[in-house]
Amino acid sequence: MSIEIRKVAGKGELKKFIRFNYELYKDNAYSVPDLYEDMLKTFSREKNAAFEFCEAEYFLAWRDGEVVGRVAAIINHRANEAWNTSSVRFGWIDFVDDREVSAALLDAVAQWGKEKGMTEIVGPLGFTDLDAEGMLIYGFDQLSTISTIYNYPYYPEHLEALGFEKQTDWIEKKLLVPDSLPEGYKRPAEIVQKRYNLHIRKIKSRREINRTGIAYKIFDLINEAYSPLFGFSKMTRRQVDQYVKEYFPMLDLRMVTVVEDENNEPVAVGISMPSISRAMQKAKGKLFPFGWVHLLKALFVKHSDTLDLLLVGVKKEYQSKGVNALLFTDLIPIYMEMGFKYGETNPELESNSKVQSQWKYLDGEIHKRRRCYRKNIG
């Protein structure tokens, strides 16, 4: 009955690592499975551009010949350098409700990190900020999104029993799409547009993305806007190429808005998409043979009544000046026309009052909270 922790070796064990989450949550109504194909790329040292500045090991917990837990141990050297830390991250952690299992998994991460000179263990975090992060501590009865983690309520109980402490929290909001554009956005949008000579740009086609290089400008903006946020490390050009190739084809370009200055340079961007959570559940984590049908239908044929507010980024010198209102005066009428009833924010740092204040003219509630934990290991 003892627990054995082994490093993942070979494709067969990596498949077990990925599929363990699917098996653990196969009957859960709120968990949204990752695409198996995406996970293979994420964990591949050849295909994931984050390995330019990260190193990682993956561990499985075994008991009586069965997998009972998994965890990824990650060191993001770029983030450690930027934030002057010596952190080993734990991510993609799942385990049965047995504290011997969770303790063994996290000890494996800590020991690997200590061998690499790290002095603290933090998580759940991925390779970069665009990976899912944070352990759910509130909102277990809420449907997850494609960009967040769902976990059982016993997970945080295990972490706290093992001596992990809160490092930071993220909150998520469920917002009502209004029947008309709120006045609180109209006037600030008019003022900021005239004062700074700004204009809205809509991307018309995938060809335009490739031809103009607008995607690179958008990600440069995101790198700048997100640089002060907890644990963020700037994306490399290879990472940007990877994200553009894999994720931009999924976007309905009506739901992407760019604000540009008089020189046609982006100063803000808002990116959203129809929720595909139910479609991912139907696909059961696989594109083939028929999973892609559910995804395409949810994206471009008959979308749900909920949209995912994936990200809002504003250039530093334009923050707190009302540029967000200009984004929303374009996007909210589009959401109304498309028939959405609700919008879900991505996780937002509880300390980030700037980003949270942008929703103040919309009715809604905080319906999920997630936490990054830490513990000294040095």
What labels would you give this structure?
36% helix, alpha+beta, single chain, 13 helices
Count the E strands.
14
Order of helices and strands: EHHEEHEHEEHEHEHHHEEHHEHEEHE
Percent in helix:
25-40%
Q: Which residues form runs of ≥5 with pLDDT under 50?
A: none
Assign the structural class, choosing from mainly alpha, mainly beta, alpha/beta, alpha+beta, or little secondary structure.
Answer: alpha+beta
Count helical runs: 13
How would you characterize the overall build of this protein?
This protein has about 375 residues and is of the alpha+beta class. The chain contains 13 helices and 14 strands. The chain has helices at about 10-25, 35-40, 75-85, 100-115, 155-160, 185-195, 205-210, 215-225, 235-245, 275-285, 290-300, 325-340, 355, and strands at about 5, 55-65, 65-75, 85-95, 120-125, 135-140, 165-175, 200, 255-260, 265-275, 305-315, 340-345, 350, 365-375. Strands 1, 2, 3, 4, 5, 6, 7, 8, 9, 10, 11, 12, 13 and 14 form a 14-stranded mixed beta sheet that branches. The protein is globular. The two termini are about 30 Å apart.
